Amino acid sequence: MDPTVPDLGIDIPEISQIAFVVRDIEDGMDRFGGVLGLGPWEIYRFEPPTLTDTTYRGEPHDYSMILALTFVGETMIELIEPLEGPSIYTEHLDEHGEGLHHVACFAFDDTEAVVREFEEAGMPVLQSGVFGEVPYWYFDTQEQLNGVVFETATNLEAMQEPDRTYPE
Amino acid sequence: MDPTVPDLGIDIPEISQIAFVVRDIEDGMDRFGGVLGLGPWEIYRFEPPTLTDTTYRGEPHDYSMILALTFVGETMIELIEPLEGPSIYTEHLDEHGEGLHHVACFAFDDTEAVVREFEEAGMPVLQSGVFGEVPYWYFDTQEQLNGVVFETATNLEAMQEPDRTYPE
Fold it and tell me: How large is the ipTM?
C-alpha cells in the first residue's frame, strides 16, 4: 500500500448517482431518452432562493444549474446544465466538453462525519450548497481519486417536488 | 423531441458497471480503496491468447489491458490500465488524463439485437473483443450521448477466474 494514499476508513455502501454535464438539459434528456430509453425525468432549477449557502473552493460563491433526474434500476442518473456563474460544471465543459462528471453516495450513516473525514485527509470541499433542506458537498478528490470528483448529500427525503417532469 | 436524435427503443434495465481509466492499476486500487474503501479487487489481464477478435473503429486491431473489478452495492466498478497498443483507453488518457471513462449494461435480454440496433442507428462499434467466452462491445456514442461511451457485453457467467485478487 502506497503510504502517500489517504486512508479514510470510510465504507461506501452504494453508488447512489452517476452525473453527466450537458450544455442543454432538453437536448440531454432527448438523447439519453432516445438512445438508452432513460426517463421520465424530474427537473429542478437549483438557484436562489431555494438554493442557498453556495460555496466554491472554500469561498461563498454564486452559481446555479438545472438538473434532470431519473433512475436506471437503483442508480440515479443526473444531467446538469450550468446556468449562472462559474462552477465545477462550467469548468468541466471548458476543459473536457460534455460527459461523465462525478459519482455520488447519499447513503452514509453519518454524512457530516464523512465530510470531516475528507477535509481532514486533505480533500477539501470543492463546491457545496443547500437546496431547500438538502445539503450537498463535492470534494476535491481529483488528485487522490485518479481524476474523479466525488459527491455526497444528506436529508434527501426532504427534497421538494420537481419544478416539472419530462415528458410531461 | 429533436428529430435528429436517434430513437432506438431499447430499455436499459440497469447500469451494470462504471469504469475508470487509470495509468497504473495498483495505484488506482490503492486510491479507490484508501479513499472510498473499495475492494477487494479481482484482477484480469485482457491479452492474447485469452483475448481474441479485438477490433478498433471497425478494423481488426491489437490492444490489451489490465482490469480490476469490485462491487459497490449492485454496481460493478472497473479500473482499466491500458497495456499494449492504441485503444479507447489510451485515447482517454491522452485527451483527458485519468478518470471516468464509460458506463455499461450487461443485463439486456438480447445483447446481439442491441448491438445491431446501435449500429443501424449510426452508432457503430468503436472497440470490441472476446475475453474467453465473453464478447463485449463499445459503441461510438459520444456524439449522440453528450460525450458518453456506452458498453455492453454478454455471457458474463462464463467469465473465468481472475488472475489474482488484491489484497491477496
Answer: 0.93
